[in-house]
Amino acid sequence: MRGANRVEGLSESVIREMTRKAKKHDAVNLSQGYPDYPTHEKVMEEAKRAIDEGLNQYSVTWGREKLRKKVAEKLKRFNEINYDPEFEITITCGSSEAIMSTMLGLIEPKDEVLIFQPFYENYVPAVSMASGTPVYTTISREQELDREDIKEKIGKNTKAIMVNTPHNPTGKVFTEDDLRFIRDLCIENDVIAFTDEMYERMIYEGEHISLASLDDMWERTVTIGGFSKVYSVTGWRVGYAAAPKEMMKPIRKAHDYTTVCAPTPFQEGAVKALDLPQDYYENMLEYYRNARDFVYENIKETKMDVSKPQGAYYMLAGIEDYEMNDVEFTNHLVKDKGVAVVPGSSFYHEGGKDLVRFCFSQDMDLLEKAMERIKD
Ligand SMILES: Cc1ncc(COP(=O)(O)O)c(C=O)c1O
User: Fold this and answer.
1) What is the atom index within ligand 1 of the atom nearest the CA of 314?
2) pTM higher than 0.85
3) Cβ-contact 167, 174 below 8 angstroms
């Protein structure tokens, strides 16, 4: 094909492919991160109201003012970071677009972006589409950072470090010590940070700390978040990026020319979501904690080597004791057992062939069915 471009070298999303396979084989889908926790009635009503009242056209490109103000309030209260909603917050089509617009806006050819593997699979294509170069460091199976390796990988071309806490797929919640280590490196080497905090409300052990809240990090961090998982609205496509005005300017340009704006009625729903009372978060956490414990206990009864996640809703399991690699194992599971999970190698630049990822964001009936099938 003529006109090779930056997407040509990218492989297709394995996670989305597993969802298609799950449908084909009528399997329980524990691959893609669909949250099964019910969307709050009031949040849905608000989006419906917006449609009925005629809010069906483009919003202001950066997002409706009332949502930017709400996000700013949340960032102040929950994340302990101050942003000016007028210039420093942009509402995007999901956090995926916030990640993409951040890379397109701030990464230039030859810039390197340090990525922790295993990684959320959109980071690498986003860096590549921005003509940057991803550089990898590995989080160990014990969920430790390799600090020596990270120091070695940061060089004169390193522009940014991509942090994700709570982390998909390991479930690691970065400690204050981890984040202070990253902070020191960013300052010493004049590196900026992108932090994806999608799962900030899903923490079973530890606490959520935003990198931008650490001293001297605000000015060099883009904080990314979204509504998809915490409020069970993955199809609404509403997320945000927050950063100092000068960093936000190019991100806003990239956002404007890629998506124009996030869906207007769903921005209205998102405003309502940020008004939900504390018990919404407590109940949701309880729901996912039960799911985590149930899946963990069941997988432990198999030959898989599983570690308990501290946050988010994924679990990595080692399959060393089976005579299959990750792709063979997941194909066997989806076709012969009727359970879809994701091959570990899709989260690694190199490695992960001895791992698979379970997503436990499903209803207990489905999890029971899946676990019965797996243990069978
Ligand atoms: C770590 C992480 N970041 C971002 C996203 C994308 O979410 P959104 O629906 O907001 O684009 C996901 C989705 O699975 C994720 O796991």
Assistant:
1) 16
2) yes
3) yes
- 198 Cβ closer than 6 Å to some ligand 1 atom: yes
Q: Where in the chain is the domain with CATH 3.40.640.10?
A: 56-273
Is any atom of ligand 1 closer than 6 Å to the C-beta of 96? yes
Domain with CATH 3.90.1150.10 in the chain: 14-32+278-375
Distance 237 CA to ligand 1 centre (A): 10
Class of domain 56-273: alpha beta
CA 168 – ligand 1 centroid, Å: 9
Cβ of residue 164 lying under 6 Å from some atom of ligand 1: yes
CATH fold label, 14-32+278-375: Aspartate Aminotransferase, domain 1 (3.90.1150)
Pick the atom of ligand 1 nearest to 168's CA.
1
Local confidence pLDDT in tens for the 376 residues of the chain = 555 566 666 667 787 888 888 888 889 999 987 899 999 999 999 999 999 999 999 999 999 999 999 999 999 999 999 999 999 999 999 999 999 999 999 999 989 999 999 999 899 999 999 999 999 999 999 999 999 999 999 999 999 999 999 999 999 999 999 999 999 999 999 999 999 999 999 999 999 999 999 999 999 999 999 999 999 999 999 999 999 999 999 999 999 999 999 999 999 999 999 999 999 999 999 999 999 999 999 999 999 999 899 999 999 999 999 999 999 999 999 999 999 999 999 999 999 999 999 999 999 999 999 999 998 7
CA of 122 to the centre of ligand 1 (A): 8
Which residue lies with its CA nearest to atom 13 of ligand 1? 33
Atom of ligand 1 nearest to the CA of 32: 14
